[in-house]
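Question (not urgent): is this output format expected?
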Amino acid sequence: MPEGQNSLVKEINLPSPEQKEFDKTVFPLILCPNNEIENKAVFESIAKVTEWIKTDKTVIEDQLLKHGAILFRDFPLECPSDFDSFVKAFNYGALPYVGGAAPRTLVVGDVYTSNEAPPDSLIPFHHEMAQVPNYPSVLFFYCDIPPTEGGQTPLVPSNLVYKKMVKLESEFVNTLKEKGVIYTRVLPNGDDPTSPIGRGWQSTYGTEDRVEAEKKALELVGSIEWQKDGCLKTVTRVLPAIREDPRTGKEMWFNSIIAVFRGWKDSRNSPETSITFGDGTPMNPRVMDTLENVLNELAIDFRWQKGDVVMLDNRQALHGRRSFVPPRRILAALCK
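Got this back:
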């Protein structure tokens, strides 16, 4: 870490197999306790970790802005409560998971399970909650039970995806800028654990009352329609798919296009109708193949270890999930 970090932590840099270098900047940044100082653990407890975060929060945030993602490894986080304390040390405030598609369960404090989609389902790349007006600025992921096979959480720098797509599919990118996108989703009447987007309208909007659900839904989307079977169809307003990050001036591939086109598929939803341009025009499957190839080409897949925490700048990086063989338990916290 830079001067002023009192050497409590050290950076792990290339040639680490769990990083890539883009524009002379490693992605993600990996931070570990610097136990070489006195040949003993510098963080004996989660209390010492949170004390360090509160003291050096600004420097950590500067590193997050520079790198887009930070992997904290070998810190003494033993349980979900430790993770909750780790996140709360940043004092960001939790963002309620309202409007998101993924099934999740509250674990402790502001900590939820990550997407509970079936293990054999691949969750495509996306910016968290890009399809709603109020999306988290920072995400935290915590490894409670590491998978023995698969289950990586791949990360991709959003600006690089944009630049690559401009080179390969400039007409498509220009159309995105001009027309924006619309997300259409049918929410089940009650959670459907068999679907990667099976979060029912009741848990999505935190109510069993249809009138209250309508009110909350219309704060997030452009229109709604109740189905005969009790499901709820929501159609967003036209949303930008390319957004400039005012902090850096860089253009970001800020959307969930490939996640919807590849992942919003179940008995109620079809990719062809779930994601369209703002004028209702469907996405070209050939371009979706190109986009998926670009994302996978740029992605970094690190293997989860027990106690790992990933801090992700949601405006700068996309994430996904590889399929896996259980058990695996990754927890998440969404912050304003």
